[in-house]
Amino acid sequence: MWSPEREAQVPAGGDPAGLLPPEWEEDEERMSFLFSAFKRSREVNSTDWDSKMGFWAPLVLSHSRRQGVVRLRLRDLQEAFQRKGSVPLGLATVLQDLLRRGELQRESDFMASVDSSWISWGVGVFLLKPLKWTLSNVLGDNKVPAEEVLVALELLKEKAEEVYRLYQNSPLSSHPVVALSELSTLCVGPCPDERTFYLVLLQLQKEKRVTVLEQNGEKIVKFARGPHAKVSPVNDVDVGVYQLMQSEQLLSRKVESLSQEAERCKEEARRACRAGKKQLALRSLKAKQRTEKRIEALHAKLDTVQGILDRIYASQTDQMVFNAYQAGVGALKLSMKDVTVEKAESLVDQIQELCDTQDEVSQTLAGGVTNGLDFDNEELEKELDILLQDTTKEPLDLPDNPHELFYTNSVPIPRISDAELEAELEKLSLSDGGLVPSSKSPKRQLEPTL
């Protein structure tokens, strides 16, 4: 749990080494310029002003994001951005510009912007503004004191979204009402201290996703049912269900404690029996039996409470289903508002009439357009019969040998006998110098010429 001592142990600014721009260690001239103070007005030298602001403003916000803190102070930033013993002289001007642009907001102003009744019990954990801060604001002095706490609004919204998702994915979301102490334990990761936790709750309250109520000295938080739903005020049903849940937890802890006590009595009886102390062993067994009877009675009560809670959860589920059905019926009625059977029949008749008209137009276009030429079908058929008769009267002059069809219109080829072909082949063989014998000449031994 948070405590002032624990928060004092956390380093204020952290060490940004290794997460700074390259010129931080490499460009001495550039860093000397950036560490110098701003001019009184931007009009004096807008280029230098914009260069410094473009360097420090994103660096301050990214430093806050890396550290995971939503609360900033000028003193902490000056310590975090020390370089070779030098402190940036223009950080106060940078914070003023971020305040003007709405990226930062004073913590006290943020608290005052949330209209909720539960903020009164959280005022004690926040720093109250000193009188000089109030006077400076009244007199129009916008300087940022070194100790004043500023809130990074964008990072705070991200933290609020993270806490909401964390709750939705936890067993606590079985019912929208949860104890503040249980929620604080659940959110120790994104909210390392109590001030951040309260700021996150204020942001969720501002977004109308939670509401906080104090019941019998204990603070309870109610969440909205859905990510886009608005939270409803805490009613008697929510309080009753919360009390049942607390009773269930109390009975469970009591049963666990009595079970340990019964086991202890059993061990005492066993040791007494081994030591020969029969009376002491009997007393221990009687105590064990009384404890077990108490456990049985508590189990009966616990079963009753759990049965009631199960019925409540089931009724909530049934209500959600019923609401979904009801919304569906309403949407269907709205969509069918102007639709009747008579209108549907009329629409079908109109469609059929349009289709018939389209068919008539198509037939007219197909039979009426002839490009100015009129043909008589009977004359065309007579001409076709004449052509067929002329074709049948002219016989085709086909050759006896089908293979000679190709040469009917070409030059006639004279016929050559086999003997003439043999003689011609013999001449060709002798013309090669006598080296190649003819297929019909006798074989002889060829003598080489000298």
Automatic annotation (TrEMBL):
Keyword Transit peptide: no
Source species, domain of life: Eukaryota
Primary location class: cytoplasm
GO cellular component, one term: nuclear envelope
InterPro entries assigned: CHMP7_WHD, Snf7_fam
Coiled-coil segments: 248-275
Subcellular location as annotated: Cytoplasm; Nucleus envelope
Annotated CHMP7 winged helix domain residues: 156-224
GO term, biological process aspect, one: vesicle budding from membrane
Similarity comment text for this entry: Belongs to the SNF7 family.
Biological function: ESCRT-III-like protein required to recruit the ESCRT-III complex to the nuclear envelope (NE) during late anaphase. Together with SPAST, the ESCRT-III complex promotes NE sealing and mitotic spindle disassembly during late anaphase. Recruited to the reforming NE during anaphase by LEMD2. Plays a role in the endosomal sorting pathway.
Protein name listed in UniProt: Charged multivesicular body protein 7
Organism listed in the record: Pipistrellus kuhlii
